[in-house]
Amino acid sequence: MTNILNHQLVPKYEILDKKQAEEVLHKFEINKNQLPKIFASDPVVKIINAKIGDVLKIKRQSLTAGESIYYRRVIDK
C-alpha cells in the first residue's frame, strides 16, 4: 500500500497540542468552533491518527507565498 503522505501534492499535516491550539486561537481571536473543518474520515486524518476535536496545522507550498499555513478542526460529520 502506498503512503499518501509521501505524495508531492499532499501538504504536511501536524496535530497541535492543547497549548499550541490555544495560541493559534488567541492569535486569530477566534474560538475553536470558528476554525474551518476537516472530517475525521479524511484519509490523511486517519493516517496521522487525529481525533475529533484536534486542531491540525497544514503547511502547503505556494508559488506566490512560499509556504502557506492553514488550520483545521477535526469533526465527525
Describe the protein in words.
With about 80 residues, the chain is of the alpha+beta class. It has a single domain, classed as RPB5-like RNA polymerase subunit (Eukaryotic RPB6 RNA polymerase subunit, Alpha-Beta Complex), CATH 3.90.940.20. Strands 1-3-4-2 form a four-stranded mixed beta sheet, with no helix packed on it. A hairpin with a 3-residue loop joins β3 and β4. It starts with 11 loop residues before the first strand and ends with a strand.
Mind sketching the topology for me?
Blueprint: E1 12-15, H1 18-28, E2 37-39, H2 43-47, E3 55-62, E4 66-75
Parallel strand pairs: 2-4
Antiparallel strand pairs: 1-3, 3-4
Keywords:
77 residues; alpha+beta; Eukaryotic RPB6 RNA polymerase subunit; four-stranded mixed beta sheet; 2 helices; 21% helix; 32% strand
Brief sketch in words of this structure:
With about 80 residues, the protein is α+β, with helices and mostly antiparallel strands.
Query: Based on CA inertia axes, which overall geometry fits?
Result: globular
How many separate helices?
2
Tell me the strand percentage band: 25-35%
Task: Pick out the low-confidence regions.
Answer: none
Quote the average pLDDT: 92
| Radius of gyration, in angstroms, nearest whole number | 13 Å
The largest β sheet comes out as: 4 strands, mixed
Structural class: alpha+beta
CATH fold node name: Eukaryotic RPB6 RNA polymerase subunit
Total number of β-strand segments? 4
* CATH architecture descriptor text: Alpha-Beta Complex
**What is the element string, with H for helices and E for strands?**
EHEHEE
Terminal Cα span: 26 Å
Query: Roughly how much helix do the residues carry, as a percent range?
Result: 10-25%
Order of adjacent strands in the largest pleated sheet: 1-3-4-2
Q: How would you classify the quaternary structure?
A: single chain
Give the tally of structural domains: 1
